[in-house]
Amino acid sequence: MNNESNTNTLTDNTASRLEASLKQADKHASENNQTAKAEPKSAYEACVLSEAAKVHALIAKAQREARERALKEKEKREEE
User: Fold this and answer.
1) Torsion angle, CA of 40/45/51/53, rounded to 10 degrees?
2) Residue-level pLDDT, tens digit, the chain, 80 residues
3) d(Cα 80, Cα 71) in Å, to the nearest integer?
4) Which of 19, 36, 40, 79: CA 20 to 30 A from 4?
């Protein structure tokens, strides 16, 4: 019983950390987007910013999917 409680606590902590990380990534992407709009960039800089935004979006998507999987696994364990 205690191991199950520890596992649930670890899963909750992991989900919380992932959610915080996702919020931070969204904030960072938003700040980058505002900065990019404020300053004219060379073609190279615009390309680098575009690719960086894509990478941040992929990371955020992976984090969301991981959080959803963790929550589903938690719910499944609670049902058992």
Assistant:
1) -40
2) 445 555 556 567 777 787 887 788 877 777 766 765 666 679 999 899 999 999 999 999 999 999 999 999 999 898 87
3) 14
4) 19
